[in-house]
Specification:
The chain has about 350 residues and is an alpha+beta fold. It is built from five helices and twelve strands. The chain folds into three domains: about 140 residues; about 110 residues, Sandwich (Immunoglobulin-like), CATH 2.60.40; about 80 residues, TolA/TonB C-terminal domain (2-Layer Sandwich).
């Protein structure tokens, strides 16, 4: 996913960090890409595994730099925030474009391997054209010289509903990007379906959604369901599911309701706090939540006793609708060290757990 510097809204409300990206190590994207027309089966499998690992590593890196930049912008003036944001967007796009170029190059070699049955091996593909196309966002080469079609397909629109200050609606999107979802993540070609909720209202919504299959998804479930918070004026994936190619979705649905307002916070006027020991939110992202595509914002409330201390009495006041993420947010804030000139004041902070699309 390529980002625009002016299409991002960070949701950490009151954090401060040092230089962005300092703790985030960018993965090495050098992969020995076999020439599909000459490759052996072993070479193609090795390239598949390398690309799957790189996809995971780049995802971790993008989450890391997003967390760093999100926290670094808080409390800064507009000029500094814009500079941090532009640096983040540049870093994000550079890594995402390299991965996209390699994926496109691999797909072309896979197509060549399937059509020619490969060969004796030992020959490397030239991915430079694919890499340049991904960077410039132009259609890459495809077999026969025709432009590569988009892998993102809108399968169906759901209903649209009135809400305070606007409307919300939902859509079923299918991503046909080649991927595998068997027991070893390599043997079954799959597609990914996602129900997105578009919240054009001035209210935060609590949404539930499901996808029902003509058969079952990759995990053997006839129906996949999940719930999520959708902030006002945003688009959010509520439920996602993988299924083998050829297994169709029969129905899908989303139901949303306005989120109840948070109780008032009694903090003396002018009382602020500063984070003196930072954390990386991605370090606290539960692995099970990653596997289940659990995402969302969590608002926690806490007390800062004075100078250079851990927050106390940390509790969730607005849930992500995932107990795992709520618990992770409490642990993350509890691990920070904060300072405040106002003793024993209550404060709030919103953390956003988000997986890279």
């Amino acid at each position: 996913m390529r980002l625009s510097a002016y299409a991002i809204a960070f949701v950490a409300l009151a954090l401060h960090l040092g230089p962005a990206h300092a703790a985030c190590t960018r993965p090495d994207t050098k992969i020995a890409m076999p020439d599909g027309a000459a490759a052996t089966e072993a070479e193609m499998k090795t390239a598949t595994q390398a690309l799957l690992k790189l996809d995971k590593d780049v995802g971790e890196y993008l989450r890391c730099i997003k967390g760093d930049a999100s926290q670094a912008t808080v409390g800064k003036d507009d000029q500094t925030r814009e500079k941090i944001l532009k640096e983040y967007v540049a870093s994000h796009n550079s890594a995402a474009d390299e991965l996209a170029g390699l994926a496109t190059c691999f797909n072309a070699q896979l197509e060549a391997y399937r059509s020619t049955k490969g060969g004796a091996g030992g020959k490397t593909a030239d991915c430079s054209t694919h890499m340049a196309s991904a960077k410039n966002r132009t259609p890459g080469p495809a077999p026969g010289g025709t432009p590569t079609p988009s892998n993102i397909v809108k399968e169906a629109d759901g209903h649209s509903f009135e809400a305070q200050g606007g409307r919300w609606s939902y859509t079923l999107i299918r991503d046909d990007t080649p991927r595998y979802c068997g027991a070893d993540k390599t043997d079954k070609p799959c597609v990914k379906r996602t129900v997105f909720v578009t919240n054009g209202s001035d209210q935060e919504l609590e949404c539930k959604a499901y996808i029902k299959y003509e058969g079952a998804d990759a995990q053997g479930r006839p129906q996949t369901e999940a719930q999520a918070v959708v902030l006002k004026q945003t688009i959010r994936a509520v439920v996602a599911s993988m299924a083998e190619q050829g297994v169709n979705a029969s129905t899908f649905e989303a139901e949303c309701k306005p989120r109840a307002p948070m109780p008032p916070l009694h903090t003396e006027e002018g009382c602020k706090y500063e984070v003196v020991k930072t954390i990386n939110i991605s370090d606290f992202y539960p692995e099970e939540s990653r596997q289940l595509d659990e995402q969302g914002p969590v608002v926690v409330e806490f007390t800062v006793a004075g100078k250079s201390t851990n927050p106390t009495n940390v509790k969730v006041v607005a849930s992500s609708l995932s107990p795992r993420l709520d618990d992770a947010a409490v642990k993350a804030v509890s691990a920070m060290v904060m300072s405040s000139a106002c003793k024993n004041q209550r404060h709030r902070l919103r953390l956003n757990f988000q997986l890279e699309e």
